[in-house]
Amino acid sequence: MSKRRDLVLCVASSCATLVLAAGLRSQTQVLSSRIIEWTTIEPRTTNVGEVRDFFRSRTATLDELEVHVTTLRPGERSHEPHQHRSEEVVIVKEGTLEAFANGETKVVGPGSVLFLASNQLHAVRNVGTTNVTYHVMSWNSPGTMTGR
């Protein structure tokens, strides 16, 4: 009888945990429309420059939308070539960036746009003599965050 009771308690506990997790997910705040001024976002110093984190949140249509701005010092890279499930758009604000995407390396400047597709290797590096600053928008469509 003890084994049956333990099994029932285990199943009930698991179900309660799943219901609680689903409830918390549905309560997560959905990002609403907003206007964010550059001067209101404090830069956070990193080993290679600085980052301004604007937001990272659920939206009405995405599991997650993130916007941040990275500044790299001359000669620095944000990270080694890597890939992830999310997709990204990078827009160069100022400076000279060497971008690697989809097997191609190209040097780009202000106004250039990079689309970094899901699960494709990419990386960026400051090849100029001044800081490079770029805006990053990344998103996770429903289901792409599971198992990461």
Structure in words:
This protein has 148 residues and is of the alpha+beta class. The chain folds into two domains: 1-29; 38-140, Jelly Rolls (Sandwich). 18% of the residues lie in helices and 38% in strands. Strands 1-2-3-9-4-7 form a six-stranded antiparallel β-sheet, with no helix packed on it. Strand 1 (44-45) and strand 2 form a beta hairpin. The chain is globular, with a radius of gyration of 21 Å. 13% of the residues are buried.
- Shape from CA axes? globular
Q: Please, what is the CATH homologous superfamily of the largest domain?
A: Jelly Rolls
Per the CATH scheme, the topology name of the largest domain is Jelly Rolls
**CATH architecture assignment of the largest domain:** Sandwich
Q: What is the gist of this entry?
A:
The chain is α+β, with helices and mostly antiparallel strands and about 150 residues long. The chain is built from one helix and nine strands, in the order αβββββββββ.
